[in-house]
Amino acid sequence: MYWIKIPADWWCNEFGDEIHRYEILDDEGRGQVEYHIHRAGERLPWSGKTHSLAEAQRQLEHSHRALMA
After folding, report:
1. Taking the CB of residue 63, how many other CB atoms lie within 10 A of it?
2. Cα separation, 57 vs 43, whole angstroms
3. Per-residue pLDDT of the chain (69 residues; tens, 9 = 90+)
4. Closest C-alpha to 55, from 26, 31, 25, 19
5. Element counts in the chain: helices (H) and strands (E)
6. Rounded CA gap, 60 and 1, in Å?
7. In what order do the strands lie in the sheet with 18-25?
């Protein structure tokens, strides 16, 4: 599986899955990074979220391996 970085905070793979990076501010103004996952073909805006790009990529790769098994 390969990933293409589209704009600065958005990745897409050859299956059409997407990962979007967001910086979220909490009530005290501290920043936290989240990666929102969208599996191709799903109707919901997000299929999940993680706190690292590597984890988001692993989740999507795992779901594709499970579908092909």
Report:
1. 15
2. 20
3. 778 888 889 999 999 999 999 998 888 888 889 999 999 988 888 889 999 999 999 999 888 777 776
4. 19
5. 1, 5
6. 10
7. 3-5, 10-13, 18-25, 31-38, 48-50
Which among 51, 59, 49, 55 is positioned nearest to 33, based on CA atoms? 51
Per-residue b or e along 5-39, where b marks 16 or more CB atoms closer than 10 Å to that residue's CB = eeeeeebbbeeebbbbeeeeeeeeeeeeeebbbbb
Here the tokens at position 50 are 């993680």
pTM of the full structure: 0.80
What's the one-letter identity of residue 36? H
- CA angle, residues 34, 36, 40, in degrees to nearest 5: 165
Q: Pull the structure tokens for residue 19.
A: 């990962």
